[in-house]
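Lab notes, practical 5.
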Amino acid sequence: MRREAERHAALGSGDKQPLTGRMQARRERQAILALVEPMVQRLFTELGEPGKVVKQLKAEATFGTRAREIALQVALRMSIERQKIGTP
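Output from the prediction step:
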């Protein structure tokens, strides 16, 4: 039994989180994204600089830990996209 568990871990198929938990986490992330993406986009429009956007997101009192984490991920993604197209 132990060897099989080690083999699964070595193959990367040893997920610890059940499928239902992963699906619930995915749905929660999608719901949070629906709320934070427009806000992050608005902040980029208003503030322009990624550093200012990040500072504003970190200061946002209405965010929980997970929402702040996702908002910062969105800001990073948008910042990279803006660099690719040449927008400051």
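Observations recorded by the TA: The first helix runs from residue 2 to 11. The chain has a mean pLDDT of 84.
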